[in-house]
Every structure is written in structure tokens, then in C-alpha cells.
């Protein structure tokens, strides 16, 4: 079995330099267990759990996905489940907390939940080692490090990477515009972003946005990153918590079939279908206020939304479901188990790196 060890393996305490991206609206609990047991970093996703606070205004059927517990209990149970599910492998995992300004109350609630879970049980304290903040200002979250957690923060630019380094992060995830779900309005792609961030900071950098196989992992290392974070690729795996139509859409789409339009906290990259097209149309028409494609342009519309709620977007048909995904959809054609996927990525990347001296003449 090939191995590929980088600085990020030591910083995070993982065997393979691969992180699973946090991915709402699911808890990504089953995925996190599978990824951690395969030697990479599994991550629980919090963002959808907050939907249970406003079930009628959330774009998902929160009760179907999470039951009726309040968010801190959902998180606690999820942390317990991943701790139990990974105990045999003695792997480590993380929790992703988006810290966008629109979400701050929920972020604080989840950060408290992580700390309380660690304090509640020695197995949790051993295995829940990482917190990945994203989508906002890192500075107030340095307190998480004081709790003994390893702190990674996701950034879309050199400016934000320097800010994250100043705040004291242990790992910086540089996320290019190819990536699925939230992206920056400024479309800087991984090929430019990753080497620029790696040059600008001393903190180890993980590359995200478009990474999905051995070629792209090897490329990330050449660009100066110490590992990759993958979202879209992990959705299309046997164990991932996502609905079958979402997995199928990723396998079927080619690389041109994603679209960026206005989403929750700024723009998001969607898998192309009729619904994504209509969101992009509204974005271009600059409809003054709307939320994931539903116009919020009058008090009447807001009242209607509060009264009727959203249809469950994920449960809808493939044409109308609202699904996020990155350009890597064009490079994903199968539905492996997580272990098969990770083993193949590591073995391919190692082969590519080993074969380079035979392919290139250097003087
Ligand atoms: C369906 C989906 C949901 C996502 N949700 C989150 C999230 O809740 N928090 C977060 O920090 N990033 C989120 N992301 C971004 C991923 O964590 C990851 O950085 C990104 O997918 C990397 O790009 P890739 O899709 O090309 O692999 C999401 C991505 C996808 C595809």
C-alpha cells in the first residue's frame, strides 16, 4: 500500500494528507466516520443543524434530516456517533463551523457545543481534534485553540490567508473558485490561489476547489500545498450521507455543468439544472432580496414564506432539487467506497510523483 506523508499529516494527526470538506445541509456523520477510518480527516458539518431553529424558513426538511432535537443536542449526538464509529481505528476527526456574520449566533452555539462535548468524555477529547471555521472572519475564534483544538480556517484570497495567519490558525485551507457550494464573488481559481497563498504565509496550506484524484493531489503538492480538502468528490461515495439524486447528478454532469449564483452567505456554485438556471437568472437581474432562489422582495413575500415554508429542495426531482457541487463533477464518474477512493488517490499521487524524474529532464 503506497503512502504519502506531508507536514499536514503531523499537524492534524492523520495518515493521508486529505481532508473531507464540511458539507451542509447534511451532518456528514457517516461520511466523517468512513473518511476517518480510512486514515484521512473526517468532518462533521453543522450548518444544516441550525435549520431546526427555523424549520419553516429553511430550504430543507429539517425534521426529516435531523429530527426534533435542538441543534446543540444534534451536534452532541453526532460527535458521540463519530467518536464511537471511529474508536476502532483510533483516527481523529473535526467539526466544521461556518462563521459568516449572518450565522454568528449559531456559530457560537456550535463552538460551545464542541468544547462541551470534549469536556464530557475522554474518548471524544482524544478523537475530536480539529475545528474548521469558514465563510467569515477568523479573528474571534482563536479561543478554540485555547481549548486544545487544532484550528483550520478556509480562505478565498491571499488577503484572507494573511488575516487567518495573524489570528493564529494552525492550517489554512485555500479554496479556489472551482469548488462546490459557497465561493467568493471574486473568482480566483485554485491554480492561482494555492501557490499565491502558499507563498504569502508560513502556516501549512491545504488546497481546496477542484481536487478529486491522484493527479490533482500531486498537483496541489507541486503548488505548495501540504494536502487537499475535497467536497464534491466525497459526495459521490457509497457511505456519504447525500441523497441518491445528488450522487447521481455528480456522476452524470460534465465539467461545464455547474453555475454560480446568489446563495446563502454570498454566492454558491450549484450543479446545473432548471432550478440553478433560475437562480442565476435572478442573480443577473439583481432581484433585490432573495434567498436560495425564492424572491424576498416584499413583506408579503416574506410572510408567505413564513406561512408556507419551502418545499424540501433536496427531496424534489432531479430537475428542481437545489444541489451544490464543484467543477470536479466533470471528473467524477464512479461511486466507490471511501476507502477505495482514498487508497486510489494516494497510490496514484505517489506513482505520479515517483514517475516525474523519468518524464522530465532537469539540469
Ligand atoms: C454540497 C456542498 C456543501 C458544502 N457545505 C459547506 C459547509 O457547510 N461549510 C464549509 O465550510 N464548506 C462547505 N462546502 C465546501 C467544501 O467544504 C469544500 O471546501 C469544497 O467542496 C471544495 O471544493 P470541491 O467541491 O471542488 O471539492 C460545501 C461543498 C459542497 C459541495
Describe it for me?
- With 363 residues, the protein is of the alpha/beta class.
- It has a single domain (7-244, 333-353), classed as TIM Barrel (Alpha-Beta Barrel), CATH 3.20.20.70.
- Helix content is 41%, strand content 15%.
- It has helices spanning 7-12, 29-37, 62-66, 71-85, 104-120, 122-127, 143-146, 158-167, 190-200, 214-222, 232-235, 244-252, 274-285, 299-308, 338-359; strands at residues 18-20, 42-45, 93-98, 128-134, 150-155, 171-175, 181-182, 205-208, 227-230, 258-262, 267-271, 290-291, 294-295.
- The strands form three sheets. The protein has an eight-stranded parallel β-sheet with strand order 1-9-8-6-5-4-3-2.
- Helix 7 links the parallel strand 4 and strand 5 (150-155).
- Helix 10 (214-222) packs across helix 15 (338-359).
- The two termini are 32 Å apart.
- It binds flavin mononucleotide.
- Residues 21-24, 45, 47, 96, 98, 134-135, 154, 175, 178-181, 208-211, 229-233, 324-326, 328 line the site of flavin mononucleotide.
What's the gist of this structure?
The chain is an alpha/beta fold. It has helices at residues 7-12, 29-37, 62-66, 71-85, 104-120, 122-127, 143-146, 158-167, 190-200, 214-222, 232-235, 244-252, 274-285, 299-308, 338-359; strands at residues 18-20, 42-45, 93-98, 128-134, 150-155, 171-175, 181-182, 205-208, 227-230, 258-262, 267-271, 290-291, 294-295. Strands 1-9-8-6-5-4-3-2 form an eight-stranded parallel sheet. A three-stranded antiparallel sheet has the order 7-11-10.
